[in-house]
Amino acid sequence: MSGALGVVNNAITSSQKDIYNDLVGYVKNRLPGFSSQLPEQIDIYTGKPLNDIDNPVLRALNAVNPVKISEGTEPWRQWLIDSGWDGIQMIRKDSSGNHEYTTQEREVLYKYIGEQQLWKEFDKLSKNKKYNDQLDRIRAMRVQGRPSEEIQAAQSEVYSVMNDIMSQAQKAAEMRMQQENEPMWRSIQESLTNKNLMKQGRIDDAARAADRRKAEIERLTQMYR
Prior knowledge:
The protein is mainly alpha-helical. The protein has eleven helices and no strands.
């Protein structure tokens, strides 16, 4: 019945839900009514929920592509896709690189990033002749089968600019989370504390930090239902 129920659910909940590494979330996402309890996948470039249910090709792409695509691809978004740059992967973890965000944390963070309207920055880049020339050379090198190290060197400038835009947006979003969503920020800090204590061999202290984080996550889960 999963297929039939999924069709009904699409009519009830139009926005795609983030069920990354969540078996319970997967089951809920197949059942009418339950999917409204799941975090939405947010388009970090515009701040709006993704909507791809009416386009089976986009659904297939979004299942495997870390750079999610909403219905109605804008020129700047197509430019990003064609560039081969993957800006989503770099923000799956916090800016220190030591904590992987939970689905709830990502929903909040992506919302904060989306509200910065990054699409405007990438729209400007898409019209920059120098960067377009660099991307053309990179694509040509790939077609020619050039060594990966040469391709990486060629893409360093234009990719660095895009990385900087995303990195600054992430740090601004984390600062906002610290100010406006203190419980969630505290939970992230507990995760980082746990990892540091483990590295120091302080197992008992690390276990207590893990218990505090577990309790905080359970409390946040109740808040976001």
